[in-house]
Design goal:
α12 links the parallel β7 and β8. By secondary structure, this protein is an alpha/beta fold. The strands form five sheets. It has a nine-stranded mixed sheet with strand order 8-7-6-9-10-11-16-20-19, with helices on both faces. It has three domains: 136 residues, no CATH class; 129 residues, Rossmann fold (3-Layer(aba) Sandwich); 274 residues, Rossmann fold, CATH 3.40.50. The longest helix has 28 residues. α15 packs across α20. The protein is globular and about 110 Å long.
């Protein structure tokens, strides 16, 4: 009885009791209908048969229903797919009943065939009808004074939009009611969809529709909607001071189920960049990680933590999270275990610059796949600390790659950056060196498949321009932009990580560099203006935008393909291969890295940034000059 106090078990118990009564009623009615025209009523032998068989029939059918999972879902949430399961369950239960009565013959009298047929029909009608009735009662529209005052216009009449409408109907406590749909599919125009709501027009007519309906709020219910569509809706609503919220994106949906009252959120700058979202099926592209041991370095960082989240969703045998920052590692470990309930995880506090510790870790866990995301990335900070830039981005990459090869790792994937292309800063030069280290390792260690994945800026990562702009706007400005013509490539962190996982499964493993398709570059000043408007202000009128000057080594326009490289397609639509015209010389890479290591060990930072860039771009002779002649 103690378990019945739990809502889940209590609900299942009530469903079983209700089904038992319905099954008994169907069996009784089948007998009555069979002998309805008989002047003498039901013969005594069949009354005895009914009284003897009804407990047997009820228990047997309930057992079959449970095997088909009919008690794993509340009746109020049944769908068309569930009704098909009910039909199969009733058919199997009735078939088993007939077989037992005719073959086993547990009772003195046989079951009339007409009774068996009518019992099947009546059981099906009562079981499905009860569930449908419950759903209709729960979803009935509110009336009179209970009608919510907050009216919502839903953009998107597909499954996402219908989910929003249904959730509003099921939860009157949300205080909102849907008044109609907006959808660009011409076939849906004028049609009535979920909840009897009409498709009022397309997003091209959004301004007119808003003026005619005057909603209190607009919900964008298209998880895969491009940024241009979201921007159009946001602009029209902002002009009329109507709040806009959106369903989670495809990648947010991948992280778990949606609860409208918790995950419906305000539109963010990531939603209105005007670029098509990257859509992959993570279960398919990450299938090579399933039941494998995977190690992620820099696991507490922006990219590393998202790698851990997505890798966990494809069920590896073990996920090893390595980071030398205690707080970051603690946070991702807590998230994995406590929030995501992913227990097959090991957190390792270690530094990739320590060869003995890395070799010990590799040989202890024996990972099949290593994603090397540990790196320093902030350009001005690295210019001020060039020793650490080279030590952490280049030397640590060699240590991690070599210990991975020595431990028979199958795949090694380096997370690189567009700043490694024709580098002009010590950070970019150190990442270019990391790419060359991985390419050289691919030639020296054919037993391990090495690859680098190069991409531009990721939105909302630590220290990126978006959180900086957001904090400046919260303080009332000014928002500082380096140059009016400066552009950057942008991609959301989940998109970039899923492409990284996909890139880890393509290529020959000879240290190839894969380049993510980042879409069109975005002007930083346009990004600033969009963020100011999303915050409810007007650029210059409410929040000032000030231009500074580029910092040393900072480019106006980043590149994804360098001098001496050509872009080639791959099996993945959004991933390209950057092919060097002259292959890298592993001996030159070792010699150059040894020179850099001696410079770092000497500890002389005077002009080290310029000297490192010069060494990377010119000291390598013909190979370096062809590759990155800047």
């Amino acid at each position: 009885m103690h378990r019945l106090n739990h809502p889940v078990y209590r609900n299942r118990f009530l469903q079983v009791v209700a089904d038992a009564l319905l099954i008994a009623a169907a069996f009784y009615l089948a007998f009555r209908l069979r002998f309805l025209d008989d002047q003498h009523g039901m013969p005594h032998r069949y009354e005895v048969l009914f009284s003897q068989a009804v407990p047997f029939v009820v228990v047997g059918k309930i057992t079959v229903f449970a095997m088909f999972g009919l008690y794993q879902k509340w009746w109020r949430y049944v769908s068309g797919r569930d009704f098909m399961t009910i039909v199969r369950a009733v058919a199997v239960a009735s078939g088993v009943l007939v077989v037992l009565f005719t073959v086993v013959q547990p009772f003195d009298h046989d079951l009339p065939r007409s009774v068996a047929v009518m019992d099947f029909i009546l059981t099906l009608l009562l079981i499905t009808g009860a569930r449908l009735a419950v759903r209709l009662i729960v979803e009935r529209p509110t009336r009179g004074d209970r009608v919510p005052k907050h009216e919502v216009l839903v953009v998107g009449a597909g499954s996402g939009g219908q989910m929003v409408v249904r959730e509003l109907q099921l939860n009157p406590n949300l205080g909102s009611t849907a008044i109609g749909f907006v959808d660009d599919d011409p076939r849906k125009r004028g049609m009535r969809m979920s909840g009897g709501l009409k498709v009022l027009g397309s997003t091209k007519e959004i301004a007119t529709i808003l003026d005619e309906t005057s909603p209190d709020e607009v919900v964008i219910a298209i998880p895969s909607a491009p940024g241009t569509l979201r921007a159009k809706v946001v602009a029209a609503c902002r002009d009329r001071q109507i709040r806009v919220r959106t369903l989670p994106t495809v990648f947010e949906l991948l992280r778990g189920g949606v609860q409208l009252n918790k995950q419906l959120r305000d539109v963010q700058v990531e939603d209105v960049l005007g670029r098509d979202p990257v859509v992959f099926e993570l279960d398919r592209v990450g299938a090579y990680l399933r039941d494998r041991i995977v190690l992620v370095t820099g696991a507490g960082g922006s990219i590393g933590s998202e790698l851990c989240r997505q890798i966990a969703s494809v069920e590896p045998r073990l996920l090893v999270m390595l980071d030398h920052a205690e707080d970051n590692l603690f946070e991702i470990d807590r998230e994995m275990v406590e929030e995501r309930h992913f227990s097959t995880v090991e957190s390792v506090l270690a530094d990739c610059k320590e060869p003995h510790r890395m070799l010990e870790t590799m040989q202890r866990f024996k990972p099949s796949v290593v994603f090397h995301a540990a790196a320093y990335k902030h350009v001005p900070l690295m210019e001020a600390n060039p020793l650490e830039a080279v030590r952490n981005n280049a030397i640590a990459t060699r240590i991690t790659a070599e210990t991975a090869a020595a431990s028979s790792v199958e795949r090694f994937v380096l997370i690189s950056t567009d700043k490694a292309v024709n580098p002009q800063t010590v950070m970019g030069a150190s990442k270019a060196m990391a790419e060359w280290i991985v390419e050289a390792a691919g030639q020296k260690h054919p037993g391990t498949r090495f690859a680098s994945v190069r991409f531009g800026n990721v939105l909302a990562s630590s220290g990126s321009v978006v959180p900086i702009f957001r904090s400046q706007i919260e303080r009332g400005g000014p928002v500082t932009v380096t140059h009016p013509e400066m552009t950057r490539y942008f991609m959301t962190i989940p998109e970039a990580v899923q492409l990284v996982i996909r890139a880890g499964d393509i290529g020959a493993g000879k240290g190839e560099v894969f380049v993510l398709d980042m879409g069109e570059p975005v002007k930083i000043v346009d990004l600033a203006h969009n963020m100011i408007r999303l915050a409810g202000y007007e650029p210059e009128a409410d929040i000032a935008v000030e231009f500074t000057k580029p910092r040393p080594g900072e480019k106006l326009h980043e590149e994804l393909i360098g001098i001496g490289e050509t872009r080639q397609p791959t099996a993945a639509r959004r991933i390209r291969r950057a092919v060097r015209e002259v292959p890298i010389d592993p001996d030159w890479v070792d010699g150059t890295l040894n020179s850099l290591e001696h410079m770092v060990m000497a500890g002389n930072e005077a002009n080290l940034s310029e000297r490192v860039v010069e060494l990377i771009t010119s000291q390598g002779g013909d190979t370096a000059t062809v590759s990155y002649d800047g």
